[in-house]
Amino acid sequence: MYSADWCSDCRVAKKYLDDQLVEYELIDITKDSNAAEYVMSVNGGKRIIPTFIIDSKIYTNPGIQELSKLIMQ
After folding, report:
1. What CATH number corresponds to the domain at position 27?
2. Burial 1-25 (b: 16+ CB within 10 A, else e)
3. Is 18 helix (H, G, I), strand (E, B) or coil?
4. What is the pLDDT of residue 72?
5. % of the chain surpassing 90 pLDDT
6. pTM, whole model, 2 decimals?
């Protein structure tokens, strides 16, 4: 999960994943410039977070309902 501490959507997604006991890697784009560049490269030049890579596919700021479907597959 590409994220940042200041991002409210990221906090919601992180809490959901934690509540569901889903293991994930948290990458803070404010602390990793390569991660920030990657997020921008996959999101049309925009820093849209949270950005997930699930089964080699990129998901940009999915809502909890979509995230739930993705992790329950």
Report:
1. 3.40.30.10
2. bbbbeebebbeebbeebeeeeeeee
3. helix
4. 83
5. 95
6. 0.90
35-48: average pLDDT:
96
Four-residue CA torsion sign, 25, 22, 57, 2: negative
- Cα distance between residue 6 and residue 70, in whole Å: 24
As for how many domains the chain has, the answer is: 1
Record the tokens describing residue 44, joined without a space: 């049309």
* Token representation of residue 48: 């849209």
Distances (CA, A) of 73 to 28, 29, 51, 63: 26, 27, 18, 16
What token pair was written down for 18? 């934690």
